[in-house]
Please model this.
Amino acid sequence: MKEADRLTTSIKILKREFDKLTTIQLIVTFSISLLFLLIPIFSILYKAFMYGGSFSLAHFGELLHNPLMIRVPPSLRVVEFIERYKFVTLENGSRLLVPLKTLYIGGSGPDFGYILNSLFVSSIVTLSTSLIGLITAFIMARYDFPLKNAFRVLLIIPLLATPFVNAYVIGKVLGPGGLLNFVLRDLLRLTDYTIVIVGLPAVILVQTLSYFPIVYLNILASLINVDPSMEEQAENMGAHGLRLFRTITLPLIKPGLASGATLVFIFSLEDLGAPIGLSGAFGDGLHNRLMSFYVYDEFKRALTLEQVHASAYVISVIMLVIASIAFLAIKKYVSLRQYAMLSKGGRWSVRVRRLGAKGIALAYSFLIPVILIAAFPQMGVVTLALTNWATSGVFPTRFTVEWMSSLVTKADVVTSIKNSLIYSGLAILMIVAVGTSAAYIAARRNIPGRDLVDLLVTIPIAIPGIIVAVGYLAFFGSTFSNTLMDPFINPGLLLIFSYSVRRLPFTTRTVFAGLQQTHVSLEEAAMNLGASRSRMFFTITVPLLATNIIGGALLSFVYSMSEVSTSVILGSRNPSQGPITFLMSQVIYASAAVGTVSIAAALGVLLMTLQIIAITLSNYLLKQRVAFLGI
Amino acid sequence: MVAVRLLKVTKRFKDVVAVDKVTIDIRHGEFFTFLGPSGCGKTTTLRLIAGLEYPDQGRIFFNNEDVTELPPYRRNTGMVFQNYALWPHMTVFDNIAYGLKIRGLPKKEIRDRVYGVLELIKLKGLEHRYPTQLSGGQQQRVALARALVIEPQVLLLDEPLSNLDAKLRIEMREEIKRLQRQLGITTIYVTHDQEEAMVISDRIAVMNEGKVMQVGTPEELYRRPKNLFVATFLGRCTVIEGVIRGATPDGYVILVSEEGALKLKGTPPSSDIKLKEGERAVAIMRPQDFSLEEPKKPFNVIEGVIDWLSFVGPYVELRVNYHGKRFLINVPSDFKIAGKRRFKAFIPCDATVIFPLRGGIEEAA
Model:
């Protein structure tokens, strides 16, 4: 009897809490996550662990013994001096033997095999970005010096996503006929060697430059949020300088450092931009001996799902496991809430010290090179798009509108822009619906399943896009074979869903933040006056959060436009449905031979423009002091 | 009009019992206040009545209807929130009209009723402003108007005056009382300010740690507190602990302090409280009940040395040491110490309230 009572009470509570709005919101969130995130990922696991019809680790065993995957012993020949001699015919007809000297970095090493290479690159990039990010953030947060605001803006430039082309620019600059050699060898005559940087060192360089602002912005936000009295109290007790930093400041900003570093680690792990872009500049090489490229390449070459080698799934699983470990490692520090949106900054005035002449010189001597080098790829992209630099050698020789005008004239370019706009536009509708629902449940409803909803809409940030793409191919390619949802026929539709899932966190987090800043009594007052939860939601909650929803949606939109991993892998199944980034990868990858890189650069300029507009608008709407970040 | 009944209502938040088996009857048209320190469960009780929280145990009735499981939007209560909860994206008019629109009233009637309540609340002419363009007092009135315009069964007020300055607070509490009388609406009020509660309420429930300590009219609570918490929460008093030792022929009980030096004759707060011989008990005395002349009625004498004297304005506050106990005594403001600091005062036995040490917490009002 007692049991029965308890059961009826439970049912009553469930009936009461799961009103119409809540039920719909839960169903929407769960079904989207389940169908377009969880099931595809489980399909990968299934394929990776199935061997001849039964569960087995055989695929993993094979892979781990493959010397391409894990190279034993690894090649550590990082630097090579190559001297070759070449006959040159002089005017008088005689032939002369001239030395061609090359300092080759990264050409034959380091190489540990696909799996360890990825780990190596991601670890080094995480370390280097953390170091640069930490120093930059500290200078920017704690010191005042001339032109600081200009630096603040310039430091965001490397975040503007110009996938593939940025890596190509670096490749071009570092290449044998590039700017670096022109300066060192021909202009300053410091060396008669031609310096060439390729392979993993080049990847590390490219990724460090594009990702350090992520760490910088995260730490900056943490630093701004540190209550000055914490440090003042420590100073009052006699701590100063490095000791103060080590014992008080650093522990307080650990969450920012941890989340920034982890994001960089995951982004680096799944990055396709650097390997593809560098391949465009140098041709194939060690720079694409990375797990992300392996999976990409495996799927690109397969015509049907059956042709995909099991190793691609196994590599995907390994990437997923590594990303999950990284994600779990920082769970202690962050609820991952901070990752996408940086807080508004302090309610107090931050401790800022004016720098003297010596200090200014020191700050400049760090910041200016960092910004110059880090913003170089973006400047290079603009140069490529507006001039004949792609074919002119060290420097461009004339301006041209040819590439920019191809955005509206060249059929395949126009199609890709149209595709991207349609996919991103439709994805935004889903993102707003799901993101607002999920944020509302996470922030306001004390019901079973709330934490799960929170996790489901947060976790996409930690899941490499490659995994999502492979999951779609594995799941929809088989279960939905020969339907509208078949990625081998109709990848466009699935791209809408992949954008929706992958860019969901931006909107969810801005809406969540808005809800946290809006007092719940505003909603309770409406319910008290007789509005049902759904009526209240649409007449009070949504209008109150309009700026947050629009701001978040804008960010989700631009980062959908510049999404790489799923665009490139799914797009390759049907090029006519490929979005902008897919076309860019095609053009760049082929450009070592063809030289049409400038079209990709023009598309890059388009993406950057959209990003600048969206970030400015959403910062204005959300009254953010610090920019949003996203890749 | 409606009577509100809480029956053994319990609400827990994780491990904290916010409301602990509260049983209370609030009558038709009554102005009823929950009073207590922060965290005592008074706001939670109000939210339970509004349906913004649901109890873990117990029932809530409006008249004879069990509303325990009813969602907030089916209860027809009008609530005024501590922060007013005015919607910043709507004008004053739209804020007030919201509840009427939900009820699907015709446009004309909505207009009439909104303007009616604006007049009642003295806010005419401000209907097209946005909440941020109003002063704190005006916002408060809009919140009140928004709650009243739907003609709720019960008006719920959650510390509505705590965000106003002292002068406005006094003005508004009289205004609220006036409106409540005029409309005759059952009103439940929450505050931590004992003076506010005394001035405004018909009856008060004093709460502490989720429990109702005592329910009664302001005067009952002040004059005849049933436990130490109520006695000390509602104004200052002298507290003497001791043991019951006999009674006087005219019906007063005698409390003897621990050391046996001090004897006080007094009376329990109500006839249902019986004090047994030898029981540990407490006597409390309000400072203004002392006089310098012998009263006509039976009295206790306090004779001692003045330890402390401070001029407050309307009166002079003394602390008098008598048998090692400190008595808090107010005397007229023209009081002067003459020579020695010896001092003698009287207090009627009727004003000396004696209750058991573990004084009764009310289970049912």
User: Anything to note?
Assistant: The interface with chain A takes residues 50-52, 54, 69, 71-79, 81-83, 85, 87-89, 98-99, 102-103, 146-147, 150, 156 of chain B (CB under 8 Å). The radius of gyration of chain B is 24 Å.
